């Protein structure tokens, strides 16, 4: 069995792969830092991905490395971040990539970040609900948010880890406890529901999905995912059969992927795509771009629940305005009542996890 000192030596060898490229060159290949002409990171935003070596984390890291708004990209995980970091750092795009491995490096990973994206945690297997992930993922999200509260309390947080309906309330409670909670800066990522809804609606109507925009409100699990088909842009009409089909497919899109992957996880590639679109919108908001509206699960007064997903306006301080739901038809009103019932329990479960 490996001794503790061997393990420490091995970890320190691994950690050397995680240093910024200029430091690594100084140690290893004979080219000293003084010989390098790199001027350091260009202006832009500093982004950390927590869970960067995972199924979502890896493609998300690759796509964020391609985002011209990102100047520094920190990749943190409890396994395999050295390899992912080395790999991604060779992409000839502007962002400087640094890797961080294990709890001891969490604070360095987070210090100075403008945006933290969290896809850390276990995914579903067939037969599981997202709530079945609570016992493992709640603790992971708690620890990571404690790090955020300490090291980058002003960062925007994009929370992907499931069950989102509970992990966002957990994050809020951790930040409240630390005295750093700003509801404008905490966003549960429900963009994949919108991406799916756009795709499925376009398929039914014979449109290009890039021209379709479906608001999806409520939360991110089963009946809490409520597509507002009466508010689709461009305006269009559906038969009752189409509404049933689309609502069911959008609500169960995640399960469709979990079953197709047969035990090998849940949506990763479409999620990375959705997360990058959402993170890019947050960064454009931070930059001061006007008119950026996305659906997200946020602190809200749109219903009697403390958190709810709806359209939000993004800006320099994060969520600058939470939009009302707009007119709902009878089908959507019934769906809303079902969604609220399940959401209330999931939110309370998250809150109690921290307050217990
Ligand atoms: N919000 C959404 O729409 C959405 C969509 C898809 C998946 N998800 C959720 O995202 C999560 C990740 O999914 P995945 O497919 O990438 O899973 P995965 O198992 O492939 O990757 C998760 C990564 O998290 C890492 N991790 C575990 N504990 C950690 C910790 N304490 N700190 C940092 N990293 C840690 C793991 O090492 C792993 O690399 C799951 O909870 C899944 O349900 C959410
Ligand atoms: O379905 C899952 O478990 C993952 C994710 O929430 C999804 O919607 O794809």
UniProtKB/TrEMBL annotation:
GO cellular component, one term: chloroplast
Record keywords: Glyoxylate bypass, NAD, Oxidoreductase, Peroxisome, Transit peptide, Tricarboxylic acid cycle
Catalytic site positions: 220 (proton acceptor)
Residue ranges constituting the Lactate/malate dehydrogenase C-terminal domain according to the UniProt record: 190-353
Annotated substrate binding sites: 124, 130, 162, 196
GO biological process: glyoxylate cycle; malate metabolic process; tricarboxylic acid cycle
Cellular compartment(s): Peroxisome
Chain residues that bind NAD(+): 51-57, 77, 137, 160-162, 271
Subunit and interaction comment: Homodimer.
NCBIfam families xrefs: MDH_euk_gproteo
Family indicated by similarity: Belongs to the LDH/MDH superfamily. MDH type 1 family.
Protein's name according to its UniProt entry: Malate dehydrogenase
Species of provenance: Parasponia andersonii
């Amino acid at each position: 069995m490996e001794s503790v000192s061997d393990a420490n030596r091995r970890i320190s060898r691994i950690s050397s792969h995680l240093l910024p490229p200029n430091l690594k060159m100084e140690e290893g290949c004979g080219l000293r830092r003084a010989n390098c002409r790199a001027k350091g990171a260009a202006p832009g935003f500093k982004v950390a991905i927590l869970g960067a070596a995972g199924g979502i984390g890896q493609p998300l890291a690759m796509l964020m490395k391609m985002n011209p708004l990102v100047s520094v990209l920190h990749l943190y995980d409890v396994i395999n971040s050295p390899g992912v970091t080395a790999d991604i750092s060779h992409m000839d795009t502007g962002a400087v990539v640094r890797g961080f491995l294990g709890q001891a490096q969490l604070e360095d990973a987070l210090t100075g970040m403008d945006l933290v994206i969290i896809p850390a945690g276990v995914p579903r297997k067939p037969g599981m609900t997202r709530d079945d992930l609570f016992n493992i993922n709640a603790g992971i999200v708690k620890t990571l948010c404690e790090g955020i509260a300490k090291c980058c309390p002003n960062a925007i947080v994009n929370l992907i880890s499931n069950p989102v309906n509970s992990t966002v309330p957990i994050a809020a409670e951790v930040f409240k406890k630390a005295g750093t909670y700003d509801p404008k800066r905490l966003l549960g990522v429900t963009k994949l529901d919108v991406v799916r809804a756009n795709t499925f609606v376009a398929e039914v109507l014979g449109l290009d999905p890039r021209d379709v925009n479906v608001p999806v409100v409520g939360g991110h699990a089963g009946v809490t995912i409520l597509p507002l088909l009466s508010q689709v842009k461009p305006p269009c009409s559906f038969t009752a059969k189409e509404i049933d089909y689309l609502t069911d497919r959008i609500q169960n899109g995640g399960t469709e992927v979990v079953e197709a992957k047969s035990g090998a996880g849940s949506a990763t590639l479409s999620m990375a795509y959705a997360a990058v679109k959402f993170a890019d919108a947050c960064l454009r908001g931070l930059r001061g771009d006007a008119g950026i509206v996305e659906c997200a699960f946020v602190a809200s007064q749109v219903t009697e629940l403390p958190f709810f997903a709806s359209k939000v306006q993004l800006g320099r301080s994060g969520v600058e305005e939470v939009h009302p739901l707009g007119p709902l038809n009878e089908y959507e009103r019934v769906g809303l009542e079902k969604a609220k019932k399940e959401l209330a329990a999931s939110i309370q479960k998250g809150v109690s996890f921290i307050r217990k």
